[in-house]
Design goal:
By secondary structure, the protein is an alpha/beta fold. Helix content is about 25%, strand content about 20%. It starts with 14 loop residues before the first strand and ends in a 13-residue tail after the last helix.
Length: about 325
């Protein structure tokens, strides 16, 4: 027998969930497991699909899940425009993507963050509503898994009609088939995400105006640039890769550095900053630091460093900006 859905379904009779993520964090698999649990485990009708651009780590990913009663047919594959639950897998997406777009006033948004719900509310500029936070990265690092299972646990708790044991059974089926050696760690990650989610509901102060998550073309006949001008050339000098990082970055300890250059050989984004100086009439090249604007957190430099001058750390708010050595200081007034 199918589980009872909430009464606050949308105008088409659906309960919608949207996962906001980047490639490499496992949002697609989390959405797939959640939809499978609802349809095969709870007897609901539903659907799931994801949308993304280039299939590589760090690029934006959105995963959509719909549920409806078993006597209703799912006849749409469009994005979820007015979700009941939004889960933001990467905190840096706030401000870069409109992650709260379309959120229902009676819905909830969950963010992978160490901040408080009140702090996230301010950053999202929401007038109220239900905000949830869970430190999915810390859970994943402790359990040696990925954050998707922790976020899946948090979403399951926020969507209270979904039975967590049914989702765990689906996780078990999925990992037993593919990665049996990772099963228990991922079950623990799911449970911790479920248990450690902090939800807080704030009273509404002002108008609820999150809009509708309906993509629109950037240009039309009224605002298209003349002559086919390319207004965003995708210049790599101006590109900011901070939203591509998955929570870990290299830290530079200059006292341990022998300036061998092995880190620069393996860095795919040329984010290491070098300085040429003249000593005793000869040129010498020294590593000054890292321009974190161009660092996507692949940590290849850490693996290559022979002296542990580059070490893996968890990124905390403000660290990258405080320790950034600019590769192109002329772009921001000459500051280094």
């Amino acid at each position: 027998m199918a589980v009872a859905l909430p009464t606050n379904l949308d105008e088409d009779g659906f309960y919608g969930i949207r996962l906001e993520s980047i490639g490499g964090l496992g949002a697609h698999l989390a959405g797939q497991i959640l939809a499978e649990a609802g349809v095969l485990g709870l007897g609901l009708n539903g659907s799931h699909f994801s949308s993304y651009g280039s299939e590589k780590k760090g690029t934006p990913v959105k995963s959509y899940i719909r549920f409806c009663s078993p006597d209703k047919t799912v006849r749409t594959s469009s994005p979820v425009e007015r979700p009941h639950v939004i889960a933001v897998f990467h905190e840096a997406l706030i401000g870069r993507e409109k992650v709260a777009l379309g959120l229902r006033q009676d819905g909830a948004i969950i963010v992978n963050s160490t901040a408080s719900p009140a702090e996230i509310k301010e950053r999202l500029d929401l007038p109220g509503g239900t905000i949830g936070v869970v430190d999915a990265l810390a859970i994943a690092l402790a359990e040696n898994t990925r954050i998707n299972m922790a976020m899946l646990g948090a979403v399951t708790r926020a969507a209270a009609f979904i039975d967590p044991e049914t989702v765990k059974a689906t996780v078990r089926d999925t990992f037993e088939r593919r990665y049996p050696h990772l099963l228990e760690a991922n079950l623990r990650t799911f449970q911790r995400g479920y248990d450690e989610l902090r939800l807080q509901t704030f009273p509404l102060e002002g108008e609820w105006a999150t809009g509708i998550a309906r993509p629109q073309p950037a240009y039309g006949y009224l605002n298209a640039p003349w002559g086919g001008m390319v207004t965003n050339p995708g210049n790599s000098v101006l590109k900011n890769l901070t939203a591509s990082r998955q929570g870990l970055i290299p830290a530079f300890e200059v006292a341990k550095c022998v300036h061998c250059g092995l880190c620069d050989v393996v860095c795919p984004d040329y984010c290491l900053v070098w300085e040429t100086v003249v000593e005793d009439g000869e040129q010498a090249v020294y590593l000054r630091g890292i321009d974190y604007q161009y660092c996507k957190g692949c940590l290849k430099c850490v693996d290559a460093c022979p002296t542990a001058a580059l070490v893996e750390i968890r990124e905390t708010e403000g660290y990258a900006e405080a320790n950034r050595v600019r590769l192109f200081p002329q772009l921001d007034g000459g500051r280094s």
